[in-house]
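Protein Entry — a single chain follows
Next Lines — sequence and tokenised fold
***
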Amino acid sequence: MVGIVCLWDRYATPYLAKYEELLSSQGVDYEVIFWNRLTEKGKTTVTKDGRYIYLNQFCASGKKKMLSFLQWRSNIIKILKENHYDNLILLSTVPAILLEEYIIGRYTGRYIFDIRDYTLEMVGLFRKLVMRLVNHSVLTTISSKGFLRWLEPSNKIMVNHNITVDESVDFDAPHFANDEKVRFSFVGNVRLDIQTRAMLISLGRREKLEQHFYGRVLSNCDIEQVIKDYGLTNVFLHGPFGVEEKRRIYAETDLINTVYVNAERVEDIPLGDSTPLPNRLYDALIFYRPLVTSRGTYLAELSEKYHLGVNVNGFDASIEEEILDYVRHFNKEEFIRGCDELRKEVIAEEKQFRNTIFQILKDWR
């Protein structure tokens, strides 16, 4: 049996679904361990619902948060020992680092390491631990080639795109009419990074744009208060959505908001912001919707190379004009051609990833 270790709940781990689909398609039995983070102190318990195991444990904030993580480590090791999994899938870097000694001691060559974001890899010791996990894995997957800027080279590393090979396109690119408002949509867990916040406020009273936010508002996101404090009139919050609703959402969207970095100047953008690829990139390729992207990121490089949208800085005083100028001069044919080219490359890499996983799972059966 395969054990999948998550540091969050299911909603915060959308990439779990791909692994479940792959495991089920190959007849490999598995269980998933979630951390159900309690907001109040109480007794730690472990509950199970079918193949899903829930570690119900309080998570402190601030300086005491590390203590909660160490308690999580102890509890997870206990669960792993009790269930005697043959193989593991570790979803994201932090849980893998916390379990590093135990994993390498008992599961060398028998786990998949899934890297989702930059954490502290430029710190020498942390990077050394990450690469140790990479080199002892059967496979390490990355969700963005931008991560190769801070990972050391390894033949264990393979890109795992947030797309499936059978996602076909039956949308058309938007038609921008001069007299219609431009619907500008953020789709995903709602947060306000520094540039996102600056752009939200800057555009918040403009009559030619509507800003729409689809998704769960994260606990540390104060977007509702920002709307109230600044009297923003063109911002609409739609709340959580299901995957099946994406078609409707993008049918009502003209541009996709992928502005998310925590820095005003390009040279100050942290690696955690400059190297990931959001799911919204793949939405753009599938639903033919242009991106508005932060300059200085790997996503912006792809956007420029494949003509996927307009790159901006959320602090630009001229940001509305930059967006509207892109809309006025939108080259539909060039945009569609770029989407098709990148989607073809992504799907080819995705097929390679799936074939590799199938071979691994064949050995794990």
User: Anything to note?
Assistant: The mean pLDDT is 93.
